[in-house]
Each structure stands twice: as structure tokens, then as C-alpha cells.
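As described in the Methods, two query proteins were run sequentially through the folding procedure within a single session, without resetting any intermediate state between them. The first query and its resulting C-alpha cells are shown here.
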Amino acid sequence: MTGNLLYEGKAKRVYQVEGTPGQLVLAYKDDVTAFNGEKKDILPGKARLNNAISSHIFQELHERGIRTHFIKKLSATEQLVHQTDIVPLEVVVRNTAAGSIVRRLGIEPKSALTPPVIELFYKNDELGDPLMNDDHALLLCDVTHEDLNAMKAQALEVNRQLIDLFTASGLELVDFKLEFGRMAGSNNVVLADEISPDTCRLWDLETRENLDKDVYRQGTGDLLEVYEKLMTRLEASL
């Protein structure tokens, strides 16, 4: 099924699907990086876990009426998806103060952000994915006001659904990053990329233990053990 390699990023490879225009294969990698690639390792098993977790979450979002690029899980490390042209914009939704927003704005760590805060970041590794406003996005990301409004509305709806999903697993959704793409032959933007502990900050509801990539960033735990624990919780709740 897999055809030519189209793109390789830090976490995934993207392949054409032979004989099926408009579909791609996402192949997850065992690579783990942090701080824009300054810290990196290869952890055998990470690809399997991220693929399983992201596939579970996308399937659940589909069942809740949210349109995404996801079609199905193909193998332990691969997903079949609709081809999209990725918008070079990261949409971050924050429910609790953690990470860069604390450093940038002096907000008390772990304080609730009500309503949730949406931030936009320019997808550009060379520039370090800088924070941007709507005017910057209109200038640099080939989007319209309508596109931005649609992405923000979708991000908030995904947030509502993920809070429900993760709460059932005993988890607090602190914040997360979404990416969007235009479906082939269409101007409509849909949810794309992945939703996993690589892209979400998740804490145990009772202990506030990290169950995400922060354990790797901060050197506070075994990433594979943490991702296995998260997968077990999600499977139990679903």
C-alpha cells in the first residue's frame, strides 16, 4: 500500500498510497525530541504507543461528530489518513496555566484558565515556532478571517470533547496543540496531524502526576512507562 516518501518530520514519516489519490499513510517513529530538537533520543516502542493513542482519540472524536483527516489504524505504527495541505499554524488551547504561558506572562502555575485561552504559533522550526497573533497568521499562513474563526471554534469543541474523554480516564487536560489542513480539492480546514501525549499536557486528576512528554522534557520519569499507563487508562474508559 505504501508508496513514495513525501515528508519526514521529527515524529512521523508521510507516504503516498499507491493507486489511491487523496490518501496518505502516516508512519510514526520511535524518535522523541524536545526543545525544538535540542534534546533527542530513540525509544523503541514509542511509535506503537503514539499511533495507538492517537488512533483511539481520533476514532472517538469521529464518533462525537468532529471531522478529521483520520480514516483508520493500519498497523502497530501506521495510520491511513485523508491527504491535507497543512496550515503552517499551531493552535494551542490552555485550560490550566503551565509551560510557556507561565514564563511569558507570570501567571500562577497550575491556576485555572477560564474560559480556555487559545494561542497561535507559527510552524517554523528555524524560527522556533514563535507566538503570533491573528494579523501575523493572515500575513504568513495563507488563511482568511473565516479560516481562523473556524479553526478556533473547532479547537474549542475538540477541547470540550477531550476534557470529557480524559476526565473519564482520571486525567486533567491541561493544554494541547492542534494542527489543521485543507482537504485535497477543498478550502475547508479539518483537524489533522496527531493528538497524543506528545501534543497534550495531561495530569492525573488526583496526584497531578505528569502523563505526557513533560517527563522526557524535565527528566522526571520513563516516557514509555508513562505512555503505556496512559494507553491503559484510555482503553479502560473506552
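Immediately afterward, the second query was submitted; its sequence and C-alpha cells are:
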Amino acid sequence: MNSVMADDKIHEECGVFGIYSLSGEAVAQDIYYGLTALQHRGQEAAGIAVSDTFGPMGNLSIKKDMGLVSEVFHEEALQNMKGNIGVGHVRYSTTGGSRVENAQPIAMNYIKGILALVHNGNIVNALDLKYEQMFKGLAHYTTSDTEVLAYEIIGERVNSQTIEEAIKKSASKLKGGYAVVIMSPRKMVGVRDPFGIKPLILGKKKGSTGEEDTYILASESAAIDAVGGQVVRDIEPGEVISVTRDGVSSDRTLCQKKRAHCIFEYIYFARNDSVMDGIEIHEARVNAGRALARKSDVKADIVVGVPESGIAAAEGYALESGIPFAHAFHKNSYIGRSFIKPTDKERQTAVHMKLSVLKSVVKDKSIIIIDDSIVRGTTMKQLIEMLKAAGAKAVHVRISSPPFLYPCYYGTDVPTAKQLIASQHSSEEVCKSVGADSLQYLAIEDFKTMVGDLPLCTACFNNEYPVK
């Protein structure tokens, strides 16, 4: 995201995209479009690797760098990336620092060919695996859990008949949340963690011949839509799916009954127009707003949402309560990517650059403002100050998630408990700190309204971690 308010939001780690044209058509342009559709999942770095399955084994073209997709790739670079199979990645760093060495794809040559890998999530036991690899002489220096994973697959590939077998052996050792897409010389393979914490979706599209012979793996359905594809289905938690010249095959050996999908995909991470594990994201957020309205009896003149993350929930609140929905903020969409501002004064200036208040909308109004979360509380405090400076009589805050109390270990950048305002203060204290007239959160039991019976990971709210 534009990071003018990034210090007071949580972040998804990455977005992944893979594509294989069985008829041999170039795929670099489609990867670019797919990654652009996933840009919200990571703005620090971007990368693409492609290969030609009809050419000699080992031919790989790769480009990656710090920056947005549009900053890293230009038309000439994409035209020079020849290949009908490829993977792409957008990154926000959690494990591994924010530097170009940790940009993905990770590409490696080994005795049986090449491997290029993109990964979303976090491998909780990566350090243990790294020590095992060092003991075996497979790897001596790795900077991220993604590299650890790549070395693990290569190590298993030596004694495996197929790359799928090596991936399955490797995945059986992993703990954490992950979605991985691997490109080998003649195959594209995807694997999703057995709990389904991280999303991965299969799609397909027509080639120039009119045949649906191009297959896609992506973090979100919106990326498949962006390249003119059709969603086939979600990859099952624990499933290893392979695309070869013979089509699609699947191994469900690692699938299990217990699942724990990340609730924050539905609250905030995923694009509003995506569908994930059968749940329409926009509808889930509208339903969260409806749930908030049902438990609130505050009287107000208008309901507003914080762009963009609070808009859908605000619409739902307005529909349920009968209080009119209004747009109170103008969002400047043309602010370039920037680093988090180091001082309070600069952070405040950055928020004013990003959002401005429509004074005629809020003047003399009692307002209900909806956002997806309160992390540190700094942004909400500034927004309330802006609304009251523009003449708002009262500002009531409603949050479409429960209070953040615990960190996440599965690839979501939730800060430590000491940095989470709700972990250190009561709701009444948080309300006073941000200057609100009232504050109310969504309850964990309200998630059923959002996603039905979908099993969830809610560890950041209740300390119940599915993976130890």
C-alpha cells in the first residue's frame, strides 16, 4: 500500500502468481498483469521468472527488484522475457529483511535442472530446517524462509522420482502458513498449507487458438480475472497440484480435516472483488458491518468508511441501521510509494496528504466511522481530529474486527503485543486515546455472519494458534 498510513496497518506478506501455456504462448505480460492485480499484497519488491518448456532445459529468464510492479518492469523488459511458463511475486517482508536479496522468485540450478519458486506465508520451523540443511551440506547461508524451502525441495529432489514427490516430502516437514508455486523445466506445481491459512486458487484461460490450454495459480481470483481467465476452484488445504503438458493432476495425501483459514483475508487483505474459499469478499465485509450495526444503539446522522478498507463494512452498517451512508474523505490516489515517516509530525502530514475531509459532508453531523482494525491507534486518532476540525459534532468508531491482542506467526505482519494498543489498554482507554465519542469492535462470534461455517484462524484475537 502507499505507506503514508502503513505504520498503523497490518500487512500481508506476499502475493504469488504462476502461469503455464501448454500451447507455447509467451506469459510474461500476463504475469505482469496478474501481479499488478495483487499489488495490494506487497509493495516492497516484485519479480518474474519465465522459461520455455519447448526449449533446452535450464533456460531461465528472471528479473526482480525493489519497488512496485510498474517500477520494476517496463515493456521492453517484458518483451525480452521469452517463455510459456513462469512465476511472479509481490513482496512485503516479514521474515527476511526488506532488501533486493530477498525479492522473489528464488531461482536455483541443481543437478536435475532448474527450479524457480514464489512463496506467500511464513515457515515457523524454518530455522530448524536450515540447521538440518547446513548439517547435510545443502546450504550454508540463507536469508529467508523461502530460500530454506527451496533448498529443502532440491535436497529431496535428488532422491525422488519427480518434482511433485520432492515437494510433497518437503511440505510434510513444514509448519506454518504457506502458498507456494514452483516452476521446474516442464512443470508448474502449487502447494497450500494443510490448514489453508494462506490462499491459492486455480484458474484457466483460452489461448490464441481458442482452446483453454493455459493454467494459472494465484493468491486471489482477482488476479485470474485480470488476465482474462476463469476461476476453476480453490486449491484444497494440503493439496499438491501439478500442471504438465498432459494437463492437471492432484495429490491430496497431505490434506487433513482440521482447517484454519486466515480471517484477515476476509476482513482486510483480499481485494474487494475477489472470491476466496467460496466466500465473496465484498459480501463478507458488508455482513461484518451489518453485525456491527445490530449490536450498536448509537444515534448518528451519517455512516462513513475509512478508504478503502472500511467502505464495504460501512455500507453494511448503513443498510442494517438505516443511517445514511456518506463519503467523508477524498483519497489522493497519486501519492507515490514512500517509507514510513520517522517522526509523529511527519506521520501526521502524511495522513493529511493521503486523505482530506469533505467539510460540507461532516459539518454539524454526528458520525459513525468504520474501519477494519485499530493496530497502534495513531491513524484513527488523526482521522477523528480531522473530522472534528471540519465541524463534526461527534465521532463514534466501529471496527469490523475484534481487538488485536496477539502477534501472528504465519506471514501476517502483526506487531508485538507491546505495540498493539488493545493489548495494553482497555476499550475505554483506547476510545479516550483516539478521541472517539464511543468505540465498539466486532466480536469473534460475529465471524459466522461474515463467512458462515468456514473454519478460521483467529489467533491474533484469542491466542489460539492452529500451528504450534
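The first strand starts at residue 14 and ends at 21. We note this only descriptively and draw no conclusion about the first query from it.
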